[in-house]
Amino acid sequence: MESTYLQQCLGTCLTQGLAEVARVRPMDPIEYLALWISKYKDIVTLEQQRQKDMIDLEHERQLARMEQEMMERLKAEELLFQQQQLAFQLELEMQEKEKQKTEELQRAQALNKVMRNLMSMARGEEPIPSEDLMMDSGKTLAEISDRYGAPNLSRVEELDEPMLSDVALNIDQDL
């Protein structure tokens, strides 16, 4: 039982120490062996501490890798979010441009109707009914046209009154 204890606790240390004493052959082998065993203990303690530090270091490295992976995922998510936000903004801008184009096209069509009406009136033809011209958009000619010098006429509503001809007016004055 005692030999098992000595072999487990001192076996390697004592064997190496005695081999060192036999190799060096110091003047005081007992003191030399005592100092050697003391130094051996310090070396073993430092080695155990170094092993513990290496395990702690490896654990910290793993944590640092996990943290870096997390940061990379967060950056990737942020980049994806920014791309989605940019795509959404571009979509809104495209919708706004499409809306402006549609409004511009409507203005051009209304202006084209007005111009055709004016041209037909200049040729002495029957004008297009005014409801089709201005009432659709609710805007005046100046609002529809982007041209410089477009007339800025206010709307005039015609009342349904019986129209008397000039001849009828002249007859009334003669009486």
Rg computed from alpha carbons, rounded to a whole number of angstroms: 52 Å
Question: What is the general shape?
Answer: rod-shaped
Q: Helicity range of the residues? A: over 70%
Number of strands: 0
Give the SSE order as H and E letters: HHHHH
Calculate the mean pLDDT score and round it: 81
Query: With helices defined by DSSP (H or I, 4 residues minimum), what is the helix count?
Result: 5
The helix/strand class is mainly alpha
Low-confidence stretches: 132-136
Question: What are its keywords?
Answer:
mainly alpha, 175 residues
Structure description:
- The protein is an all-alpha fold.
- The protein has helices spanning about 1-25, 30-120, 130-135, 140-145, 165-175.
- Helix 1 (about 1-25) crosses helix 2.
- The longest helix is centred in the middle third of the chain and has 94 residues, at about 30-120.
- The protein is rod-shaped, with a radius of gyration of 52 Å.
Quick recap:
The chain is an all-alpha fold and 175 residues long. It has five helices and no strands. It is rod-shaped, with a radius of gyration of 52 Å.
List the helices and strands and how they pair.
Blueprint: H1 2-24, H2 29-122, H3 130-135, H4 141-144, H5 166-174
